[in-house]
TrEMBL record:
Transmembrane segments: none annotated. InterPro entries: NTF2-like_dom_sf, SnoaL-like. Pfam families: SnoaL_2 (PF12680). Residues 9-116 form the SnoaL-like domain. This is Ketosteroid isomerase-like protein. It comes from the Bacteria. The lineage of its organism: Bacteria, Pseudomonadati, Pseudomonadota, Betaproteobacteria, Burkholderiales. SUPFAM superfamilies: NTF2-like.
Length: 133
């Protein structure tokens, strides 16, 4: 049975929802290129290459964000890529302020695995939440 790029990406989100980082890594190529774009200085903003760096990226997200709601809402697929529009509500650590933001995730899929990811969200909302006491 052929797995479509959308199915691969939906499996990634399902693994993320379960907290299954090993499952996430298994859905990525060994040389995965993972980039989170943002205008503020957070440890998980930037480019991370390879599975070990991706493992570190997920650890940094868990260290600095308490994700309370995470909703992939719309999937737009091509032959080897998927764009996802979504939304999240997260408590910033430290600061404990809560932010809500829409986000955009871009995935490139090669041989049934994610080879490239680019994510974007409202980092200004994150910055305001991090300043709250």
């Amino acid at each position: 049975m052929t797995t479509t790029p959308t199915q691969v990406v939906q499996s990634m989100y399902a693994a993320f929802g379960r907290g299954d980082v090993e499952g996430l890594l298994g859905l990525c190529t060994n040389d995965v290129d993972w980039t989170m774009l943002g205008s503020i200085d957070l440890p998980y903003i930037g480019q991370f290459q390879g599975q070990q760096a991706l493992l570190r990226w997920f650890g940094l997200v868990a260290e600095f964000d308490d994700i309370q709601a995470f909703e992939p809402r719309e999937f737009f697929a091509g032959a080897d890529h998927v764009t996802v529009l979504g939304w999240e509500r997260t408590r910033a650590k430290p600061g404990q302020g809560v932010f809500e933001t829409p986000w955009v995730h871009l995935f490139s899929v090669r041989d049934g695995k994610v080879a490239r990811f680019v994510g974007m969200y409202d980092t200004a909302a994150v910055e305001v939440a991090r300043r709250k006491a």
